[in-house]
Amino acid sequence: KLSLVIREVLKELCRLVPFLLSTCVYFIFGLQPSCPLWLQAFVKCVPLLFLCVYTLSHGVKAQAHGSALKLLAGLLSSAVGDVLRTTSGQLYCIDGEAMFGLAYLFYIWMFGLKPLNLLAASFLVAVGTLYLLFLSRCLWDEKPFQWLVYVYSILIGTMCWRASAGMFFTEYWSWVKLFASVGGLLFLVSDFTYAVDSFCFPVHSSGMIAAAYFAAQMFITVSVVNSADKALKNSKQK
Question: In which broad location class does this protein mainly occur, judging by the first location in its UniProt entry (predicted)?
Answer without folding.
Answer: membrane
